[in-house]
Amino acid sequence: MGGLDIAVIAFVVFVLLVLLTGVKTVPQGYLYTVERFGRYIRTIEPGLNIIVPVFDRIGAKMNVMEQVLDVPTQEVITKDNASVSADAVAFYQVLNAAQAAYQVANLENALLNLTMTNIRSVMGSMDLDELLSNRDTINDRLLRVVDEAANPWGIKITRVEIKDIAPPTDLVEAMARQMKAEREKRAQVLEAEGARNAQILRAEGAKQSAILQAEGQREAAYREAEARERLAEAEAKATRMVSEAIAAGDVQAINYFVAQKYTEALASIGTANNQKIVLMPMEAASLIGSLGGIGAIAREVFAEGQPAARSRASTPRSGPASGPLETP
């Protein structure tokens, strides 16, 4: 083999090696930028790609998968001059490999500082109470601000989350005392409202009771008056009947009427509290005659229409009789 043959073989090998340097394989999840004499010309996607050897070279290898950026703990001064410590986590994704490679140097460090700065800015514009109770609002504001700032770099901020907000120990104790006082205040207010409602209910109950009692008394008085009215009507009817009997010359009716009144008077005298023994003159014959009249009337009533079995009692004997009458 002569020198010419060796030179040809060496040239062919060199050409093959140069061609092989122009074949580039890009893995899934990455985008490569291609530079020609130091200037960006295009972006190659995952798979087998061919570039011009010697003239072109791979510039930046950009990861286009969603990535996590851990934001370290930092001190934040709130709007009401309270010092708190806060840390966060951010998720981002490269959408434009050329902008991410050539618009900013050290992309991850730039995103980290951008997020930290906006955390201090957003949280510093809020009061402590608002800061502790509105994490969703803080996350939304941070996402909007950081995403807008990173957009020229071809970066999409998908999420920003505040992991922890830690106020100082003395401030936490003061907040605990404030919360306790607030809860005690609410308990006292609820207790006072309960007592007021109980008093109102008791007053309404007493009112309804008084109304019902008054209505009961009115009904009782009405029925009592009605009973007295019926009693008076009955007495009037009885008196009228006795009067008619007297007018007709019925001696027994006269005896009945006199004996009834006489007996009622004796009962009233006998039931008096300040009298135990009563001595009074009376005509015994008159009383006996009256009682006899009562008995005759009773016999006529219970005879059921049958004629009298014996003759009526004669007229009581006249003649005064006096003597003591002892009543219990």
Summary keywords:
3-stranded antiparallel β-sheet; 8 helices; 328 residues; disordered C terminus; alpha+beta
Helices and strands in order:
Blueprint: H1 3-21, E1 23-26, E2 30-36, E3 39-44, E4 47-50, E5 56-63, E6 67-77, E7 83-94, H2 97-102, H3 107-124, H4 128-133, H5 135-150, E8 155-166, H6 169-247, H7 251-270, H8 284-302
Structure description:
The protein starts with a helix and ends in a 26-residue tail after the last helix. The model is unreliable at 304-328 (pLDDT under 50). The protein is rod-shaped and about 190 Å long. It is 56% helix and 20% strand. Strand 6 and strand 7 (83-94) form a beta hairpin. The strands form three sheets. It has a three-stranded antiparallel beta sheet with strand order 3-2-5. A three-stranded antiparallel beta sheet has the order 6-7-8. The protein has 328 residues and is α+β, with helices and mostly antiparallel strands.
Sum this structure up briefly:
The chain has helices spanning 3-21, 97-102, 107-124, 128-133, 135-150, 169-247, 251-270, 284-302; strands at 23-26, 30-36, 39-44, 47-50, 56-63, 67-77, 83-94, 155-166.
